[in-house]
Specification:
Layout lengths: L3 E11 L13 E15 L2 E8 L8 E8 L2 E7 L4 E6 L3 E8 L2 E17 L2 E12 L2 E14 L9
Length: about 160
Amino acid sequence: MTRDVLISIQGLQFADSEVKNAASDEELDRIETICPGEYYYRNDAHFVLYEELIEDFPTPIQNMIKLRNKEFTLTKKGPVNVQMVFSEGKKTMTDYATPFGNILIALDTKEVGLEESSGSMKIHIAYGLEANYQFIADCNITVEIKSRVQGYCIGS
């Protein structure tokens, strides 16, 4: 994989903040973020660095993805600060610091899967999400990382 990559992150977003046990696509909206980034492989781990812009905030969020074995870590620094660790078969807790206050979240990771080819990787994460000790939903995230020379086509 080349250093210059495009990152696609697909996940679920709540359509209604009051939904506690969302189970169907009618209650959830799928979201996708695509942005350029940099890829590195060091010490038996994959690293991806990228910036994320949030509406009404002039400073971007600096993001770092680290993947080693069955553990996926997403670190965000800037207007939002958090280190989320998705470790297959484990439940982890973290403080999610936002400009509007902190939220204690728990990530009960059921699966961290990886498909690799020479110019791309696809990571799938299945987990249960809790906020302030209350179950919110079972969630899925798919992260695709592709070399920029290959290009990126939405839906591929």
